[in-house]
Amino acid sequence: MGADLRIGVLYGDGIGAEIVPCALAAVDAAAALEDVGIEWVELPMGSSAISSHGSSLPAESLAVLDTLDAWILGPHDSASYPPEHLRMPNPSALCRKRYGLYANLRPCRAYPGVPATTPGIDVMIVRENSEGLYADRNMAVGSGEFMPTPDVALAVGVITRQATERIARQAFAIAEQRSRRLTIVHKANVLQLTTGLFRDVCREVAAEYPDVVVDDKHVDAMAALLVRRPAEFDVLVTENLFGDILSDLAAELAGSLGLAGSVNCSATKVMAQATHGAAPDIAGRGVANPVSIVASAAMMLRWWGNRDDDPRLAAVADRIADAVAATLASGLATADLGGSASTSQVGEGIVQAITKSAGSGS
Ligand code: ATP
């Protein structure tokens, strides 16, 4: 079978080398059942790329990513890079900016069989990825964070109508596919002009989606309400920093950051990336939860199937998502979920569950 899809793989730092292979194995197993051929294109990224190529995301990798529609970005431990690399955008910020991956979709739901702090949680956090309070990606040249003197640090946040309309339309389109409830998350009582503009533009876009029920919350209240009344919320749309923080919170409420998959996308390209980082505290021990990156890979294929109207890719994504749920329901779990299975045992469990689904329509 020839390759239908060429997909990049960047293993990255920390637990990347342990969890990313589980995603590849799950995709290969599910794709084989749908007669989809995959060619994996391995590209350097992270500390090892600094040693071999002098950059955490070398020009050689970018030249290939330019030609791809999809790739899996493993985690990077940028805080550990040598000082001269700390001043540069990290690999994920670089990809998000270079390829215009303006939407970061971060679903968090409690799985049956997994102990969750808030069992009722099932939300999709739609995070604006290109501007907001993340000063590393909101200037054409230089960083929006700077120090006029060693004792004074400033950061510039940017919110534009154009980027807000774009992310709002993405969030409303997702809400239409889910339970038609959307919450705009902002802090317009304090950051009146910036997050106030975000709220107001989202409200304007809401007029295009009359079937969706809209409300809005301050980000601090939202954090409390996710803990107290999670079942009231479905799709949350918010700016970059708030989305980053709320998605880690939601992932832990659902059981573990190790469950949290995500994609970064534009209209034409998609990058699968776990919500969490490189987890250096547990790296190399074979105990990291691979579900986050496996779930991210499934989301990537679903996005691709939607873009090209290819039901085979939706079926591959369904097989992976069903196998993840079945594996977790069986009690096979890594230490973050209270289990004793290794990363590779959970990865193999997911592949076995996919293989078992052969013959079924997924
Ligand atoms: P970043 O800013 O790059 O997202 P971070 O500082 O938020 O990184 P993480 O690397 O995400 O930190 O780790 C936060 C905590 O979650 C750590 O205790 C880590 O061990 C745990 N963790 C992260 N990913 C996993 C995983 N896949 N399985 C188990 N535990 C994880």
TrEMBL record:
PANTHER family noted in UniProt: D-MALATE DEHYDROGENASE [DECARBOXYLATING] (PTHR43275)
Keyword Repeat attached: no
Biological classification of the source: Bacteria, Bacillati, Actinomycetota, Actinomycetes, Mycobacteriales
The Isopropylmalate dehydrogenase-like domain, residue ranges: 6-350
SUPFAM superfamilies given in the database record: Isocitrate/Isopropylmalate dehydrogenase-like
Name of the protein: 3-isopropylmalate dehydrogenase
NAD among keywords: yes
Keywords noted in UniProt: Manganese, Metal-binding, NAD, Oxidoreductase
Pfam families for this protein: Iso_dh
Gene Ontology MF annotations: 3-isopropylmalate dehydrogenase activity; magnesium ion binding; NAD binding
Broadest EC class assigned to this enzyme: oxidoreductase
Annotated PROSITE patterns: IDH_IMDH
EC annotation from Swiss-Prot or TrEMBL: 1.1.1.85
Cofactor(s), by name: Mg(2+); Mn(2+)
Highest taxon of the lineage: Bacteria
